[in-house]
Amino acid sequence: MPDTKSGRENQARADERRRIERDISEARERGDESEPPEEGPQTCYRRDCEEPAAFAVTERYQEETGKGAVEATALLCVDHAATEGPANLDSAYDEYVFRVEPLPSGDGD
Length: 109
Known about the structure:
By secondary structure, the protein is of the alpha+beta class. The chain has helices at 5-30, 78-83, and strands at residues 55-62, 69-76, 97-102. Helices cover 29% and strands 20% of the residues. The protein has a 3-stranded antiparallel β-sheet.
């Protein structure tokens, strides 16, 4: 069979279709797998701090371009959470949020 442009295009489409079908099949097989366990306690988000995270600090504010809300969450140790405060009050709007929540202790409490 001679090598033609349409033949190569058909072969490329068939290869792509087989790749997509294989990817879907593999994803379905993995769908029943559970998520891997977390790697132990998380540490504080602050640079050079190795203390365990004790609080989740969340702030929701208006993006600088005004095109939508941004929500940022950082896991902080006790000391850093105590000094944390709103950072984007200039971008506050009706649904602005600043929240500090304790993380579950992991010992069944």
